Amino acid sequence: METIAEQSDVFPKLNVEEEPELSATEVESMCMNCHENGTTRLLLTQIPFYKEVVIMSFSCDHCGYENNEIQPGGEIAPKGIEFRTEIVTPRDLNRRVVKSDFSCIRIEELDFEIPAQSQKGEVTTVEGIIDRVVRGLDQDQPVRRIQHPEAAEQIDAFISNLQKLKELERPFTLTLTDISGNSFVENPNAPQKDLATTISYFQRTKEQNHILGIFAHDEVADKPSNDAVEESVKLESVPEEVDSLLKPIREGAWPLEELQGEVLQFKTHCPECAAACDTNMKVTTIPHFKEVVIMATVCDNCGLRTNEVKPGGGIEEQGVKIEVSVRGRIDFARDVLKSESCSLHIRELECEVGAGALGGRFTTIEGLLTAMREQLVESTGMFMDSNDAETKERMDKFFGELDAAIAGNKPLTIVMDDPTGNSYVQSLNDDGTPDTALRIIRYHRSYDQNEELGLNDMKTENYAEEEKTEEADKKENC
């Protein structure tokens, strides 16, 4: 228990009232400006509503040079992220941006790109990104004008174009791509949908995983020698019942009914404090819907409780849009299955939560509203203390209306849109009569939706024949 407690205190929460003096580590390091010795201060902490970070501050008493950096201290996100933002108004220039070391920034109109790992991670604004580029380009211009006047003239013209972007002589598009998934672009209209920003997630390639230091077991394992190969061949000949620790279930040995009643358990780590904990998994069937897999994690160290639901079947032939009219406490008890691909929209509050925000979960209407509130607080609360009066007033008004809805004092209409068709809302009429407060619409997915789900390139028939043809072609080429 002492080891777990020490591990959870590595990143103390950034709370001035409870922890007025957080201990920072001071390290003597060389100044990159005058090459004398300066001091680097390191602080491991948790930013509220964000994640664990390492804050670094360097100062040199000899030349006065200072430098501040921020790096993520938590886990790397499972997917990369891309923000594509249209900068149209001065308010867009003031959008706060959290960028990691692996962020690649591109301005489409100038065909200009800041490569990943060329700058340290920082918390800045869109205008601050442009200012940093201008300072970097203008740094050696006096010497360049003497030695390479033509190149200096081209750089001056490019700096002038960047200054015009700051003056918003024309709108421009800023694209931030981060393979680590640890970047963020502020939504100034939160909790309403950001119409100027498109957020997309992508699977990293093997090369991108290697850049982040992520390797598969077979990539880091030593290549087996000839003796090891011979030994493995001998082991394969040993009967499975004698040699194997985990034995596969033989056909008919465990009926499906018993498998559905069994609760499976495996070891994992808490996403909040990284302590070891158990995750329980169970296969169950939702009446009038389909088979699902429910996973629940409880951490004894910090008390965190999470649940996640995965559809047991495949993607349905059609997408589904479910509209629920929440008239009072009676509708709060409806069971809800939300898949990972399902987005949520509350019409009366003009609030929209993206598909990947809440993950897959099996809950109720009340639990869904509460989870949406927590998600919105996490996504908008990072800069809550530095927002202007107008933004604070708008956020307070929105959360007041949402709290009134959760208390059952405000009617709402919740729209769930799931292109995979794997979401479900319980009907209150068990006798088969229509539920007037529940409307279900099925639709055919668009090409872009199928592309995002990976269905356009998926082949489920006669794929074995293509493999045989490819093998035959290889043999002929040999």
From TrEMBL:
Residue intervals of the Zinc finger ZPR1-type domain: 29-187, 268-427
One GO term describing the cellular component: growth cone
SMART domains named in the record: Zpr1
Alphabetized Gene3D superfamilies for the sequence: ZPR1, A/B domain, ZPR1, zinc finger domain
The protein's name: Zinc finger protein ZPR1
UniProt organism field: Anopheles merus
Listed Basic and acidic residues bias regions: 458-478
Family: Belongs to the ZPR1 family.
GO-annotated molecular function: translation initiation factor binding; zinc ion binding
